[in-house]
Amino acid sequence: MLVRHAEKPYAGDLGEDEDGNEDPGSLAGRGRRRAEELHRLFPPAGGSTLPRPTVVFAAGGPSGAGGRPPARCRQTVEPLTTALHIPLRSEFGVGAEEALGRAVLAAKMPVLVCWEHTGVPRLIHALGAHQVLGVPASWPDRYDLVWEFTRRQGRWSFRELAQHLLPGDA
Questions:
Q1: What are phi and psi of 28, to 5 degrees?
Q2: pTM, whole model, 2 decimals?
C-alpha cells in the first residue's frame, strides 16, 4: 500500500515540528489531523477494505536542508505505527527508490509506504508494478488516497481507494 505524506503548508505558510516550532518542512494542521486519523483505515476487529500493515516505510534517509531528514512522511505515519504497535522504517531517502523497492519486497507483507509524490513513479517502477493497468503516471494533487498493489503468482494488480478520514476528502 502506498500513501503520500499528509497535507503540507500552503506556499508562504509554515508547518510545525514535534517541538511546536514553525517549520516549512513539517505538516500543516490539516496534515497533522490526517496523520492522527490514519489508524482508522486499519480497525482492530477487521471490517476494513485494506489489510493491516506489518511494517511501515517512510521517506527519511540522508539529511536535507538544515541537517535533518525530511519530516512530513515520518510525521504522517508515526501516529499510525504507535497505534498499531508496528515498526517504522525510515532509512531510505527520496531518490533511493530502488533500494526501498528491494526492502519492501523482502519485508513481511502487507507493507505500507508513505512517500513523497515525486518519487512515487520511481518506487512503482522499482517494485516492477509500473505496467499494471490503471496505475497513473504520477501521483495526483491529493493527500487522501491509498494505492494498493497486490502481487499474486508474479502478477500485480492495482486499485485506488479514498481515505475518507477528514471533512472534504473526496
A1: -75, 170
A2: 0.90
